[in-house]
Amino acid sequence: MEERVQNREKPYKCDVCMYEFTRKESLRDHMRIHTGEKPYKCGVCMSEFTVKRTLNRHMRIHAGQKPYKCDVCMSEFTVKGTLNRHMRIHTGEKPYKCGVCMSEFTQKGSLRSHMRIHTGEKPYKCDVCMSEFIVKGRLISHMRIHTGEKPYKCDVCMSEFTVKGTLNRHMRMHTREKPYKCGVCMSEFTRKGRLKEHMRKHTGEKPYKCGICMSEFTEKRTLTKHMRIHTGEKPYKCGICMSDFMQNCNLINHMRIHTEEKFINIMPVCLSFQMEETHETTS
Prior knowledge:
By secondary structure, this protein is of the alpha+beta class. The chain is built from eleven helices and 18 strands. It folds into four domains: about 1-65, Double Stranded RNA Binding Domain (2-Layer Sandwich), CATH 3.30.160.60; about 95-145, 2-Layer Sandwich (Double Stranded RNA Binding Domain); about 180-210, Double Stranded RNA Binding Domain; about 215-280, Double Stranded RNA Binding Domain (2-Layer Sandwich).
């Protein structure tokens, strides 16, 4: 047996996938992948596992045991493999590369998920509306739209969110943090997407085109507003007299007729959009 290990001889072969093993016991454990057998069960949460060592690692979750610690940031982990993957955050190592677009990733699972962008595969489907997703996390977040669950709450204003990332972006309203900076004019933004949209002002790129009049726009929301000219859609309705408006700012101004609130100069905001729209239409 020791001689086999030293010589890397692998006499035990899986008849299904041709994987080879140095030990008979390893082949036996491996075969459970194909048979689906999971003889090791957690007595706490009833999770099942194919091999005993995986159950042993799992039990650390319930025991709160985290024997593997990061020497850089002191984060603790239940499994050594998770620590190894975590260390790549500090080292910058990205050993998994996409053969299509050359994007690099710290984890194999991230590369696997990324490849679905190229293949178009969306294995996670919503049972309610049949929407499909590339990764399971997106499906979990999506399901909260149907359930109404909002587990992430702002400690400042008590606003609730379905996704943690949305809460993180929201917090920048309170902290005034703007981590995304334009390298051309030094404008700063709270969101990466807004910086991306802003950069089109410098590049002249207008990726959103109206299918009716061929007008082009830098932002999707501007195209959405523009389309109401063609469709006649007026989604903003006055709850008092039922008047309809294409833009929210027009509704806000209108409401002052009923409240007798002093008219304030909000029209330049609307006009700004209209001028921008006209400019982008004619340019």
